[in-house]
Amino acid sequence: MQELVLNQPVSTARSELVREAAQADARREFEERLAECGPLAYRVARGVLRNTADAEDVAQEALLRAYKGFERLRDRSRFRGWLVRISFRLALDRLRSAKRREQRDTLWSHPAHLPAPANAEDIAASNQFQSHLERALEELPEKLRLVLLLSAMDGYTIEEIAATVGVPIGTVKSRIFIARKKLAEKLRCHANSIKMR
Questions:
Q1: Do 122 and 192 share a domain, yes or no?
Q2: Which of 2, 37, 52, 122 shows the smallest number of beta carbons within 10 Å?
Q3: Is residue 148 located within the same domain as residue 190?
Q4: pLDDT, tens digit, 9 for 90 and up, residues 9-26
Q5: This prediction's pTM
């Protein structure tokens, strides 16, 4: 009976040591992958938000979420794509909430103020076209927007995007083609609406 009592705490202590060792290994692996892919979270957020401070906040939150969920990640070789998706979604959430807040503030401060119709020269000189471009990008489906931003940002190659997102190269090519085509259509519609004014 005494042997059972003595052996039980030892086996519990061993299982705790094994668990702690596994956690330490996971932490080390996360740190290695983070050193490899950490700056990518910032670059993705910066590509979506176009604001350094917000991009830094989003990147930190993405890295924190990745750290918390790292043990649940089944295929750790897909860490890079997983981190990109976390950062991309958080950046989109931040962008949407900022736009809602901006719209609300604008309506409260100038409820009756409507901008005068602009001609082509005014649009080229102002930020209206830029805001329309951003709106057109937001309207693209997430999977198309992600590959378009990655290809336009820092000059990622098709192969790098495929490895990051975790889809075949042909899929990346078709998504970029479709995204560019849809974006061109949206911008063409905007240009036509300006000509009709």
A1: yes
A2: 2
A3: yes
A4: 556 777 888 888 878 888
A5: 0.54
